[in-house]
TrEMBL record, chain A:
Protein name: Unannotated protein
CDD domains to which the protein is assigned, alphabetical: PBP2_TMBP_like
Family that this chain belongs to: Belongs to the bacterial solute-binding protein 1 family.
Organism: freshwater metagenome
Record key words, sorted: Signal, Transport
UniProtKB/TrEMBL annotation, chain B:
Full protein name: Unannotated protein
Subcellular location: Cell membrane
Membrane topology: Multi-pass membrane protein
Alphabetized UniProt keyword annotations: Cell membrane, Membrane, Transmembrane, Transmembrane helix, Transport
PROSITE patterns: ABC_TM1
Record's keyword annotation contains Cytoplasm: no
Length: 461, 296
């Protein structure tokens, strides 16, 4: 009996040791940086569970129907939480700063990533892309991304420089630039041609509405946040030659070009938009134009097109055209915005998170999301896909108009301002100055020069 | 008895232990917050966590946006208290009868309290939309408007007061109604016999009875109004310009938009002090009134 007891004890210890070793190896979920092969398998993180934070956006509607495919393919359970942009950013900040790892993967942007990367809250993704044991390198085809879009997610962490260099902090899932969306019937009724310059737009601004309040001239976003000088109005600023940092390395928010652009922008809105225009968010702008209340969406996101073209969400599907943004004194320039996906550095499911990122940005899944309304493609193969081409070719006043406009804007679109962890705050201050000017609280020069002083302090210049 | 007393003391210690644990649970983050407010802590930078004494507070009081926010907050708090108490007393007086109509009205009165403030605020934002909101449409039927409501710096603060009143007026009314219902019927009958009219009965009999209830409702509503955030953030997010940018909004922006934990905590602690001072003042005044035998 004693002997039997001893044997049981030895067997128990051995079993525990074996289980411990197996447990350690199977619970370990970190990627080795050893690039010397291992066969790739989508099932290598089977049984894991990841939490994904998404921002309320057409991308969400496009990816949700596909999540079951990912779960079946990998055995990884995906829990998705979707929040409005402001709330998602703020909740994410709380999670990242406390390193709780509540979200493994999240939707973000280069702008936010400047702060997250500085803080060490996100993992650089280069090591996963180069590791053939966690990436199906051939099928993923990282070179299929437009270099500019991938580069916009790279930064070497040096404030106000280094964009396009250094580590890759996120993978782009769609791209956005800006255009004019207009109602051909209204333009025809008024005998107007689509404006080619800001001068032409200012001249016709007062005549675009019906004067009775049932249809207004134009709509664009205008709340006091960073997206105003960075994206939509930023497109106009750049076309006037205005920028955040001048060639002398100093803040240039109060340059003559910036003052002129601001005065013209305010003039356009006062002539062509309803009195509440000073508080419209991007969502108000998108829905406002889709509701048929406006003759034009001014310098608004091109990726609103799926909404404009969807009969369930839009009243203007059969009466919509697209045009490039007007030229300013400095020609035609434009901002760009990229939604991207990044990995929380506090994730406890590193491999599963990477597999999700790899899957969601893979060529075939990206095409499916584009067909479901996630625009615009960030991969060359997506634009070449016949189904995507067929979908977008029907958009606009004439066949292929949307695609032509996006292609044309793509030649000038760029990330307008250099990376800095406090860039969001600096741009918020700039937007506040523009909004004050609109509401008549001081002149453009007074407000912008005051903002310039504050932004100089914020950026540490 | 001594053993009984020891047992009682032991039982008392056991019963208050959970409360002490909770108190510690609240004190630790509070003290941590005080510490953070004395540093230049930025959430994204481990290098910026130096002790800077009261520099955050100095910068706060020197910041015109903070002072503007304080001014806006004072206007908001004083205005909503006045509006809600005048309306509250009026409605409570009207409901202080036992009819089928008042029974139904009392049930309808509590509906706003059942709706989360954020949901109610978003509903009102839709109603107040300047171009095609229902409110402007209704006003147009009597040749009024259109108004910009939440989208103009001159009307945004007033619009948020309307929303706050719609949400919290039932709370004030219910407390005042319970006060009115506790008024001694004998005193009212005596006043009637003496020839007092309704207004005189209300002024000289009911209102003095209501004072403790006014203090109570004022204490809660005042503290709430000083901390106001959800109504404003859901509708204007502090804009247009800074017309509704009360202090809690500023603290939220500092902490959650710009990751400036030190500055955010300084504003939050200032707000805490204001709420504490306000509550203390109301309670002391209420006690002083009691001690002077001013309660009938």
């Amino acid at each position: 009996m004693k002997q039997k007891g001893k044997q049981v004890r030895i067997a128990s210890v051995l079993t525990a040791a074996i289980l411990l070793l197996v447990g350690c190896s199977s619970n370990s979920d970190s990627a080795s940086t050893d690039t010397a092969g291992g066969d790739f398998s989508w099932m290598q993180a089977e049984g894991s569970e990841i939490n994904v934070l998404l921002v309320s956006h057409p991308f969400v509607d496009s990816i949700e129907p596909l999540l079951a495919d990912f779960e079946a393919k990998t055995g990884i359970k995906v829990n998705v939480e979707t929040l409005a942009e402001a709330q998602a950013t703020e909740k994410l900040l709380a999670d990242l700063s406390t390193k709780s790892g509540a979200y493994d993967v999240f939707m973000t942007s280069p702008l936010s990533n400047w702060q997250y990367a500085t803080a060490g809250w996100i993992n650089p993704l280069d090591k996963y892309l180069e590791n053939s044991s966690v990436t199906d390198v051939e099928a993923y085809n990282v070179d299929d991304f437009f270099p500019g879009f991938l580069g916009a997610n790279k930064w070497d962490l040096k404030p106000l420089s280094g964009l396009g260099e250094g580590s890759l902090w996120g993978l782009p899932i769609n791209s956005e630039s800006y255009l004019l969306a207009y109602r051909p019937s209204v333009m025809k009724e008024k005998g107007l041609a689509v404006p080619k310059t800001y001068k032409e737009l200012i001249a016709m601004a007062g005549t675009l509405g019906d004067g009775k309040g049932s249809r207004y001239g134009l709509i664009t976003r205008f709340d006091k946040y960073w997206d105003l000088p960075y994206l939509t109005f930023g497109t106009m600023l750049a076309s006037y030659g205005a920028t955040l940092i001048g060639t002398d390395g100093k803040v240039a928010v109060c340059s003559q070009e910036s003052i002129d652009a601001t005065n013209d922008f305010v003039s356009i809105l006062k002539k062509a938009s309803p009195a509440g225009a000073g508080a419209f968010t991007w969502s108000d702008a998108m829905q406002g134009f889709a509701s048929g209340q406006y003759a034009m969406a001014f310098n608004e996101a091109d990726l609103f097109a799926p909404t404009y073209q969807d009969p369930k969400q839009s009243k203007v599907t059969k009466d919509i055209g697209y045009a490039v943004t007007p030229e300013g004194p400095a020609g035609r320039k434009a901002g760009t915005w990229l939604w991207s996906m990044s990995m929380n550095s506090a994730t406890k499911n590193e491999i599963a998170s990477w597999l999700f990122l790899q899957w969601v940005t893979s060529p075939d899944v990206m095409i499916k999301t584009h067909l479901n309304g996630n625009m615009n493609p960030v991969r060359a193969s997506a634009w070449e896909d016949p189904q995507v081409a067929k979908l977008v070719d029907s958009w606009g006043e004439t066949p292929g108009q949307y695609r032509d406009v996006v292609s044309e804007m793509g030649k000038v679109a760029q990330i307008l301002y250099p990376p800095h962890p406090e860039l969001t705050r600096a741009l918020d201050v700039w937007a506040g100055a523009i909004q004050k000017t609109y509401f008549g609280k001081g002149t453009a020069k007074e407000n912008l020069c005051s903002a310039q002083t504050e932004i100089t302090k914020i950026l540490g210049l | 008895m001594s053993k009984q007393r020891k047992n009682d003391e032991r039982a008392l210690k056991v019963m208050i232990a959970p409360a002490l644990v909770l108190l510690l649970g609240a004190l630790v983050p509070f003290m941590r917050g005080v510490w953070t407010s004395l540093t230049n802590s930025k959430l994204y930078s481990s290098q910026s966590n130096s002790f800077i004494w009261f520099e955050n507070y100095r910068a706060m009081f020197a910041n015109s946006i903070f002072l503007q926010g304080l001014r806006v907050l004072i206007i908001f708090v004083v205005s909503v208290l006045i509006i809600q108490f005048i309306l509250g007393i009026t409605i409570a007086h009207l409901l202080n009868t036992k009819t089928q109509f008042t029974k139904i009205s009392r049930s309808i009165l509590v509906i706003p309290l059942l709706i989360p403030p954020v949901v109610a605020s978003l509903l009102w934002k839709t109603l107040m939309w300047p171009t095609d909101g229902v409110l402007n449409w209704m006003l147009s039927l009597v040749n009024l408007g259109p108004y910009q409501w939440l989208t103009s710096p001159t009307t945004a603060l007033f619009s948020t007061m309307i929303i706050d009143t719609w949400i919290y007026l039932p709370f004030v009314t219910i407390i005042l109604l319970s006060g009115l219902q506790s008024v001694s019927q004998d005193q009212i009958e005596a006043a009637k016999l003496d020839g007092a009219n309704s207004w005189q009965i209300f002024k000289y009999v009911s209102l003095p009875w209501l004072v403790p209830y006014i203090f109570l409702a004022g204490l809660f509503r005042g503290a709430d109004a000083i901390k106001t955030f959800d109504v404003i953030y859901s509708t204007t997010r502090g804009g247009p310009i800074d017309s509704t940018r009360v202090l809690h909004i500023q603290a939220y922006e500092e902490g959650f938009r710009w990751a400036n934990a030190g500055s955010a905590m300084a504003i939050v602690l200032f707000l805490w002090f204001v709420v504490y001072a306000f509550s203390n003042t109301v309670i002391r005044f209420s006690k002083l009134r009691d001690n002077r035998g001013l309660v009938s």
